[in-house]
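The freezer alarm interrupted the setup, so I double-checked each line after restarting. Inputs confirmed:
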Amino acid sequence: MMKTIAFASLLLLSSVAHGDDLTTHVEQPYHHAVSLQVLTLDTTGMSIQGERDLGWKNLSVAVSLGARAAAYGDYSSTTLGAGVELRRWLRRPTTMKGWYVAARTDVARTSIDDMVDDRDVGSMLTWSAGISTGYRFVIKDRVEITPSIGSALVVESGTMSPATARGAAIISLTAGVVF
Amino acid sequence: LIADFLGGLPSEVPDNYINASPMFQVTSDASPFLLVHGDKDVVPIEDAEKLAVLVREAGVPARLLELGGSGHVSGPGTASDGRYLQITTDTPESWAVTLDFLSITLGAP
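Predicted 3D structure, all chains:
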């Protein structure tokens, strides 16, 4: 179901953004991108990201919103998150294509319910900050696929626990449209 | 690996497999159980579901947290905002439920 929604969203985004003649393959700068986080689609979650070229020092900024409902069985959960990523594109003069390095921060809140006793277990607040590098492939001057890897510091605190910090690997794959 | 550890295949040494399985060790004297299992685990999540049923049938409290998208590993391989690949059970959900279970079972610290 999640994959179907994601695929339909990508098709819609592609058709909305499709304003130019795709038969031309002239190198062009991109100023915007709208993407879905592919790797979350099979994890009972979804994250969508919008990106904009800042027009300065090959920088762009991406803002993402995500949601996840991972727990089931005797529990249920809802996670809502948001993130901001600053990217510096290494390829010049064209931006938002090829290699980039990035710094990112995210915040998310997860609330958990006990479905057996019908009570609120509590919530966890997660903050992370990390660095990553990735490569954006652009197909037909419109469709983007961007794998990236990196590492992050993740700090979690909850209504029943003190804050804890840990390292985490970042593995990311987005797909969407650039225009 | 399991066959080496248990001395043969299930058809060869069935008693070894029965003795090694938690499902055959459940008694009414067992301590309360919290089971956390990811549905992408190589170990079938149905095993945890069966064990939870057996523990409850023995009159012992049992809770089962099933995590969509989580795998076998418990370690720092994931973040928790829905953006990262969820390969482990090290998630905010499992932390919160574990602390809640310990608080109820043992009492708040």
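Quick read of the result. Chain B is about 35% helix and 10% strand.
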